[in-house]
Amino acid sequence: MSDTTQLNTRGHSEALTSGVRVKVESMYLRKQSQPELERYVFIYVVKITNESDRVVQLLDRHWVISDAYGRVEEVQGPGVIGEKPKLAPQQSHTYHSFCPLPTAFGTMSGHYGMIDSKGERFKAEVGLFNLIVPEEVN
């Protein structure tokens, strides 16, 4: 039941797991960042689409965040931005959040804990995507 495909490009990712497609796009927020204080803020927009033939619900999230120094932080918790969306077949849920980093480059990846209408739990993968200050990378 774990058919995972991923597409990886700068600041974008797409993964399909068990009929749930997760697309992510990240952008640098210059106005909220303070490079002189080693604070770089990135926004990421996530679109979760249920391409299966059953209702699915997002229960929790697990993120792995790495900075340019190789430091890794794991973030886990219920839902996304306080919500646990239920998605009927072909329905999507889009949300945005942010990630501060101490470096001008980093990555994020992870998964969403899901449950389907049959009570089966599975992980919907979030493919690795970059967090990059554009002028820092040529």
Summarize this structure briefly.
The chain is mainly beta. Helices cover 0% and strands 62% of the residues. The protein is elongated and about 50 Å long.
Walk me through this protein's architecture.
- The chain has strands at 5-9, 12-17, 20-28, 40-50, 56-67, 72-78, 86-87, 92-101, 105-116, 121-132.
- Strands 1-2-3-4-8 form a 5-stranded antiparallel sheet, with no helix packed on it.
- Residues 1-9 have low confidence and may be disordered.
- The chain has one domain: Sandwich (Immunoglobulin-like).
- It is mostly beta strands.
- The protein is built from no helices and 10 strands.
- The chain starts with a strand and ends in a 6-residue tail after the last strand.
Q: What is the number of helices?
A: 0
Counted beta strands: 10
Beta strand %: over 45%
* Element pattern in H and E: EEEEEEEEEE
Largest sheet: 5 strands, antiparallel
The helix content is under 10%
Rounded Rg: 15 Å
List the strand order in the largest sheet. Answer: 1-2-3-4-8
CATH topology: Immunoglobulin-like
CATH classification, class level: Mainly Beta
Number of domains: 1
